[in-house]
Amino acid sequence: MDPADRYAGFPPGFFDRADDTPDQVFYGPVRLVTHIDDRAIAAVGALYAELGINGSAPAPRRVLDLMSSWVSHFSTPPAELVVLGMNAEELAANTAATQRLVHDLNTDPRVPLPDADVDAAVCCVSIDYLTRPIEVLTDVGRVLRPGGALAITYSNRCFPTKAVRGWLATDDEQHGLVVAELVRRTGLFDEPRVALRTPPGRGDPLYAVTATRLPTG
């Protein structure tokens, strides 16, 4: 498929950003902070447990955490956790990680892992920074084993100069529709499910878009 066709129907400039300087510059300073409140963090951990991809699952799990940092929000970490992010020091501080990959997905949307290498993939409050999200999610589908879970969470916080313009121009409910459509256009997952994972009206909202890797062939 022509890369331009992948994004047919999205307005021109939807995946542009106000700050187009190299991401290595923006993410160079170490930020050992969390970007959602404790209630939203707990909701992320509860989601991972519900999907059976954390350390309490009956079988060993190898999980990819995309666009990760110093904490991955598992209530119990999986047996193997591959963290992929922009800042080596932040990833080094992630005590749950068993493998660390410093990689800029906006420069190269390919995930540096073999085919069918992980049981699940997660992306926590970072999907809004991807300028080529369909290419990234397609490659995530490549490294996921059939039946593997994809869990993308988002809230109402972001670095506005690095979030794509279309994200800033849409609201939380529309964000879910956008993310579901991005997953859908890979052709590699079942129908995405969108849900609010926190009670409305108090603290940071936590939304999740989940899908399952379809069988190959």
Q: What is the fold's blueprint, element by element?
A:
Layout: H1 3-6, H2 23-26, H3 38-50, E1 62-66, E2 80-85, H4 88-92, E3 99-102, E4 118-124, H5 133-143, E5 144-154, H6 165-168, H7 172-184, E6 193-196, E7 207-212
Parallel strand pairs: 1-2, 1-4, 2-3, 4-5
Antiparallel strand pairs: 5-7, 6-7
Quickly list its features.
single chain; 217 residues; alpha/beta; Rossmann fold; seven-stranded mixed beta sheet; 7 helices; 25% helix; 20% strand; globular
Helix content: 10-25%
Approximately what portion of the residues adopt beta-strand conformation?
Answer: 15-25%
Spatial arrangement of strands, main beta sheet? 3-2-1-4-5-7-6
| SSE run | HHHEEHEEHEHHEE
> What structural class do you assign from the helix and strand content?
alpha/beta
Q: Using the CA coordinates, give the radius of gyration.
A: 16 Å
Termini separation (Å)?
A: 18 Å
CATH H-level superfamily: Vaccinia Virus protein VP39
- Mean pLDDT across residues: 91
Q: Which residue ranges are poorly predicted, with pLDDT under 50 across at least 5 consecutive positions?
A: none
| CATH class descriptor | Alpha Beta
| CATH architect. name | 3-Layer(aba) Sandwich
